[in-house]
Automatic annotation (TrEMBL):
InterPro entries: Thi_PPkinase (IPR006282), Thiamin_PyroPKinase_B1-bd (IPR007373), TPK (IPR053149), TPK_catalytic (IPR007371), TPK_catalytic_sf (IPR036759). GO terms for molecular function: ATP binding; kinase activity; thiamine binding; thiamine diphosphokinase activity. SUPFAM superfamilies: Thiamin pyrophosphokinase, catalytic domain. It comes from Ligilactobacillus ceti DSM 22408. The lineage of its organism: Bacteria, Bacillati, Bacillota, Bacilli, Lactobacillales. SMART domains: TPK_B1_binding. It holds the Pfam family TPK_catalytic. Gene3D superfamilies: Thiamin pyrophosphokinase, catalytic domain. Its EC number is 2.7.6.2. It is an enzyme of class 2 (transferase). This is Thiamine diphosphokinase. Keywords: ATP-binding, Kinase, Nucleotide-binding, Transferase. GO terms for biological process: thiamine diphosphate biosynthetic process; thiamine metabolic process. Residues 147-210 form the Thiamin pyrophosphokinase thiamin-binding domain.
Amino acid sequence: MELNLLVGGPVSDLPVDFISKIQAIPGDWVGADRGAVRLLKWGIKPVLAVGDFDSANETEVAAVAQACPKAVINPDKVDVTDTELALRYILKEYPQVRKVRIFGATGARLDQFLANLFFVLKPEFAPLINKVEIIDKWNQIQFYTAGEYELEKMAQMQYLAFIPLTAVQELTLKDQKYTLERQDFAYPISLSSNEFVGQTSHFSFKKGVICVVQSRD
């Protein structure tokens, strides 16, 4: 199954025409905190809503509790962000999930964006590394463990970046504008401003975790 997770980032950073096209996005929806309130406002009933809802009023919280089949209001979230809390419940309630698209996880505060980027390195979220993607108006972000992969170029995206989040061994970029052959990286680094040559791109590496970003200006 596929799930979509809306968290509470700025609406202005959501993909172009997101609200008008939200009904066409495949998969059920999960709302994290303010994201659950917005989903109801836009005509989507989340299958799961999680958060302390400190930014919502009593009427909005009551609406979420009534509309959602499973609503976890005011949970203990001392050690996690709203995004991480929602993903924790997704793993618990939907262990068979094969894709999770996350919207509203970028923009505004840099510390919150970095938390949403690096959560994949926490051991509890290891089962989601290859299943999660973060999408906003300018970027599509995916995560990969060691292996061989083929990427498809997204419409309107111009640039391609490979970002080792950990030490990485033998990174090979086979058919991009700028190629690499079995390059090791001992620390996180952003190999940015690469580009597709055709409609697909192939890469591989032996060890570590890599973030791949397709982006546009």
